[in-house]
Amino acid sequence: MGDRNPAPPPPQAVPRRRALADGAAATLAAARLLAPALFTGCSLGVPPRARSVTVGLLHSQTGPLAISATGLRDIELHAFEEINAAGGILGHRIETRAPDPRSRVELFVRKAGQLLDHGVACIFGCWTSASRKAVLPLVEEARKLLLYSVPYEGNESSKYVVYGGMVPNQQIFPALDWLMSPAGGEKKKVFLVGSDYVFPRTANYVAKKYLQGKPLAVVGEVYLPLGDRDFTATVRRILDSGADCVLNTVNGASNLGLFPALAAAKIDPTKLPVFSTSIAEDELRGFVPEHVRGHYALSCYFQSLETPANRRWISGFRDEFGFDRVTGDPMEPDWCLVHLWKQAVEKAGSFETEAVRQAFRDGLSFGGPGGTVRLDPKTQHTSKFFRIGRIRSDRQFDIVHSSEEPLDPDPYPQVAFPGWSVDWTTGGVTRGPEVDIDGDV
Amino acid sequence: MSIEDFYWLYDLPPQRSAVLFVAVFVGFYWIGSILLRPILRQFVKHTAGCNDIVGYVLSCFCVFYGLLLGLIAVTAYQNVADAGSNVTREAAALSALYEDVARYPEPHGQNLRWLLRDYTRYVIKYAWPLQQKGIMPEEGTIRAAAVHDQLLEFQPRTPSEEIVHAEALRQFNHFLECRRMRLYSVKSSLPDSMWFVMILGAILNIAICWLFDMRFITQLVLGGILAAYLGTMMFLIFDMNQPFRGDVSIKPEAFEALYVRMNEG
What does the pLDDT look like over B199-226, one tens digit per residue? Predict the structure, then answer.
């Protein structure tokens, strides 16, 4: 018979083989986990992995706006390559992601969403005001900065947008003043022609308001759909109006229709000059020189600007992107915007949006190829020079007028938007009465 | 676990990777000689002429295993060579296209030349570093689409322009084919099953060596030499496993030479 109350068995020792097997498995697992760090992160001869931050570049690389917008992508790539070569920002290498919104507003929204989902620190991009306004709600919701470098119509302020392009008081107003001056020929009748979207309509509304009571009268106004190239009827209306100058806010490839139509009507630029807000050196490449020679562009920068800083900048860009590449507005403001953002990040010591915005309050400035620009902390717009360039046969500009100093930005000129103002260092936007830009002036 | 878990090895300098492979194989052999050899020896220690039998088995095994390693090494090298050939053909097609569009009227010609230069620059500066990390670059597709758009925008007006345009479109299609093949080869590599067979074969090879009856120090030296060579072979195959990674990989020299020529004006 067995023992009815057997003693509990002694605790079994772990078998040697099992101990060896467990030990080996544990060693292998630990080695596998640690090996990448040991061999790539800590060992001599292998540089540690650089930290990086991604920024989004949202520019059309195909479609009708590509002719203008591709230059912005390139100048941003050039700027970030230089910044990375100099050690990056706060020790971070700047990576870029540049999707193609194909000149379509709905794709700007989708691609901006993808960039924000990817966690970009900010977005440099948009060309038309329609695309900017479409992207705006996304950046505001994500609390990321959109840095926008194209001249636009004003009448907008967002705490999450930095506006690097000219607003009407820096472009349209001084242009109209010059037209009324003896240097500009003391013009009496101006015809307004534009593409049918936000910028031209608002810019022309502001122009009409500004000209009230002044000796330059608006004698006609025409808008054509963006991308439309048939300007035959428009040119007929310009001629019938008796205008002695034209303010052209047509954008993108549509200009390739306007100027041939003007040339076909044998319009002499010395008698009926066209002043364009959206034509720069890049766009001029698409024209037959005889069609555009003698007409004017309104800008903050021209490639022909003879300064050492500008020569160096052009040379650096051409060394990287090709001997025959051209620079222009808004490439120059875009370059300045990248560097202003870099300054803000370095001052903030962080890539976080709110910290960067706080750094704007110190009033950043940057010596760009076109002169020094200052970021106005109240409006988050930049001060800039105003210049008028006359188009030459070699698709460059003779600068016929330049402001003596940079003009401060005013996104809400009181003549057009009474009661409206913005100050992001205090309360933000002060709203005035609603303005109907399509209404009578 | 798959071979991709070990792709961090590509981040090491090649000499260091090679030493690591050899060290792992020799280390495995030596540790096994201490821990496993006494156990395995139990199976053969009372067999007469044991070393002859083990030597015969090892010879047979080595023939098959050597053939396998040789064929796999050739396959891997062929993979690299094919990818290299695609890269050269892509650069050649790009070069021919660049010459064709130089005969287009302005501004189409200049726009296309800029776009082609931009594509080439992107491949050198952005796509290649990504490929070297095993990542398929995406933004080249946008640049190729921009070239395509610009090509299609051109409407030839004379018979000679029609001929040049037709040739440019043909070159562009050829360029697209080569480009697509380059992108496919970014992630091409030997399948995991091949690696499994190779590694199992190496382990068996080493295990057979443990069965020899000889002085311990002789065992360590002779087996160590065999293990070191196995490690070297494994390193070579691993290095050629991905065409754009490692020391035996394709460099962007064809594109760099083309870009220099494009910028000569």
Answer: 999 999 999 999 988 889 999 999 999 9
Range of the domain at A349: 52-166+306-384
Task: Please check whether residue A97 lies inside any domain of the structure.
Answer: yes
pLDDT above 90 coverage of chain B, percent = 75
Q: Which of residues 29-68 of B touch A (CB under 8 A)?
A: 35
Scanning chain B, the segments in alpha helix (DSSP H) are: 14-35, 37-41, 50-101, 108-122, 128-131, 139-153, 159-186, 192-210, 216-241, 253-262
The enclosing domain of A362 has a CATH number of 3.40.50.2300
> Please, which contacts does A218-223 make with residues 24 or more away whose CB atoms are closer than 8 Å?
A218/A190, A218/A191, A218/A192, A219/A189, A219/A190, A219/A191, A219/A243, A220/A191, A220/A192, A221/A191, A221/A192, A221/A193, A222/A191, A222/A192, A222/A193, A222/A194, A223/A193, A223/A194, A223/A195, A223/A196
Cβ A98–B139 below 8 Å, yes or no? yes
Q: Which residues of A touch B125 (CB under 8 A)?
A: 81
Give domain status of residue A348, yes or no. yes
| Region of residue B251 (left: phi > 0; alpha: psi -120 to 50; beta: else) | beta
Query: Chain B within 8 Å of A393 (Cβ-Cβ)?
Result: no
Contact A39 B262 (CB under 8 A): no
Residue B117: list chain A partners with CB under 8 A: 321-322
Total of domains in chain A: 1
In a 3-state reduction of DSSP, which class is residue A111? helix
The total of structural domains in chain B comes to 1
* Residue A325 included in any domain: yes
Summarised one tens digit per residue, pLDDT across range B236-255 is 999 999 999 887 789 999 99
Domain that holds residue B163: 3-262
Chain B hits for A318, Cβ within 8 Å: none
Q: Is residue A68 part of a domain?
A: yes
Q: What is the pLDDT of residues B41-66, one digit of tens each?
A: 888 777 778 889 999 999 999 999 99
The CA distance from A59 to the nearest CA of chain B, in Å, is 11
Average pLDDT over residues A135-141: 97
> Tokens representing A11?
């605790």
Q: Which residue is closest to A286 within chain B, CA to CA?
A: B107
